[in-house]
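Long-time lurker, first post. I've been practising inverse folding by hand and with some scripts of my own, and I keep getting stuck on stretches where the structure tokens seem ambiguous. Below is the full token string for one chain I'm working on. Before anyone asks, I'm not after the true native sequence, just a reasonable design that respects the backbone. If someone could post their per-position residues I'd love to compare against what I wrote down in my notebook.
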């Protein structure tokens, strides 16, 4: 690798031998999450048997039921919407479903490995996009585990390690670490669903504000500008919840939207995510991979976002963006801005081009949104980082080998970061 190429790549992921992270961010983290530590309800390999998620019966309150809407909704979207009120773990067994294609699933695993940089980049941008959904954001604010850059780095680096384990191991082998890790995450979801939907905590979660955590709004935030730019582009969207119709947290709908957050931008906009050289067969593998993970996480196949052909899933991605994501983004408030700023500031220690300004502008570019007022307010550094992203991702289409080089560098960077944290611990 030439010196110029190495310097360019390091601008994106940083030197593998240095975290670039200040002491205030680097703290000992716990990345090995045991089932016993978080939830003890997995028995005989079947999650969900005595999870506290039924503290409030979903039939007792009108939560997440879609009112009449004039927005055009596809039959597949309407099917997903029926999961708004369904607990996020339907009790799927851990055995492979009859529809599983092992060869296609493994192709998706291989795609994830080769395109790790693009997948990680898209997952961060998906969070910048979808954290505007209050049903997803309020539980994060309530737990207080990601409302500062240091804590956000801790939480999302842990998530990165989970997903890395799933594509590097065999999630279908009960003896494999990947299988055990995935079930531990499934247990955590069940435990948190029981807490968030309990009669004691539900209203507290739904009414949480970032100010409750001691964070004051600055004099000149960006969210007013975001609202101004998007007010005529978003449309009404789908009325999923409201003051008189609070959500059922971690529902089948939420789990389905989580699948979108991990693969949707790459499937719907591969060129803008750096995967323009990927074939349809590669992306079909990615979709099937996440369909399989969804099954093991307890997503009923009816609500599995990745059920269907590549064209059908891509169409569903675009529909979610148009009817759910963009309308929510047009209602952005200080809760969203603070949590997203914490996210990208924390993760910028692993991917140096990240910033709230650059990330939001790249999301707008990906979704073809016009944000002139936001662009006018961007700092010089924010603009430089954005154009560096644009240039780098554009080059990946013409030089796909750089994708694999960036993925290897990111892998080395995160491994070194983990080792440094372990040493400090």
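-- Answer (accepted) --
I ran through it position by position. Result:
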């Amino acid at each position: 690798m030439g010196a110029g190429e190495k310097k360019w790549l390091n601008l994106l992921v940083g030197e593998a031998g240095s975290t670039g992270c200040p002491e205030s961010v680097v703290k000992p983290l716990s990345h090995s999450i045991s089932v016993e530590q978080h939830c003890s309800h997995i028995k005989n390999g079947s999650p969900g048997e005595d999870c506290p998620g039924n503290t409030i019966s979903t039939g007792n309150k009108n939560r997440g039921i879609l009112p009449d809407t004039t927005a055009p909704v596809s039959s597949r979207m309407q099917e997903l919407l029926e999961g708004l009120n369904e607990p996020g773990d339907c009790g799927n067994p851990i055995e492979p479903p009859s529809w599983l294609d092992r060869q296609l699933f493994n192709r998706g695993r291989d795609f994830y490995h080769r395109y790790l940089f693009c997948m990680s980049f898209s997952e961060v941008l998906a969070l910048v996009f979808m954290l505007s959904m209050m049903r997803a954001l309020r539980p994060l604010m309530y737990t207080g585990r990601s409302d500062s850059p240091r804590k956000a780095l801790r939480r999302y680096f842990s998530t990165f390690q989970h997903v890395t384990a799933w594509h590097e191991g065999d999630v279908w082998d009960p003896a494999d670490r990947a299988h055990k890790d995935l079930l531990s995450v499934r247990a955590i979801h069940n435990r948190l669903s029981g807490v968030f939907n309990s009669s004691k905590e539900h209203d507290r979660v739904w009414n949480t504000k970032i100010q409750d955590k001691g964070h004051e709004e600055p004099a000149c935030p960006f969210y007013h500008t975001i609202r101004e730019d998007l007010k005529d582009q978003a449309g009404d969207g789908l009325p999923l919840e409201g003051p008189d119709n609070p959500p059922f947290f971690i529902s089948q709908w939420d789990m389905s939207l989580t699948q979108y957050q991990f693969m949707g931008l790459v499937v719907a906009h591969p060129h803008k995510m750096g995967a323009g050289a990927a074939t349809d067969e590669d992306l079909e593998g990615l979709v099937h991979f996440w369909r399989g993970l969804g099954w093991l996480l307890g997503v009923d196949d009816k609500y599995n976002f990745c059920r269907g052909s590549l064209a059908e899933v891509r169409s569903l991605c675009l529909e979610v963006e148009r009817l759910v994501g963009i309308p929510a983004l047009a209602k952005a408030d200080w809760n969203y801005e603070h949590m997203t700023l914490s996210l990208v500031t924390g993760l910028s220690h692993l991917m140096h081009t990240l910033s709230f300004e650059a990330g939001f502008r790249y999301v707008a570019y990906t979704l073809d949104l016009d944000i002139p007022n936001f662009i006018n307010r961007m700092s010089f550094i924010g603009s430089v980082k954005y154009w560096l992203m644009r240039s780098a991702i554009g080059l990946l289409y013409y030089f796909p080998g750089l994708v694999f080089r960036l993925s290897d560098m990111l892998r080395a960077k995160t491994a070194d970061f983990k080792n440094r944290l372990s040493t400090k611990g």
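A couple of notes from the structure itself: The chain has one domain: 74-424. The chain is about 55% helix and 0% strand. Happy to go over any region you disagree with.
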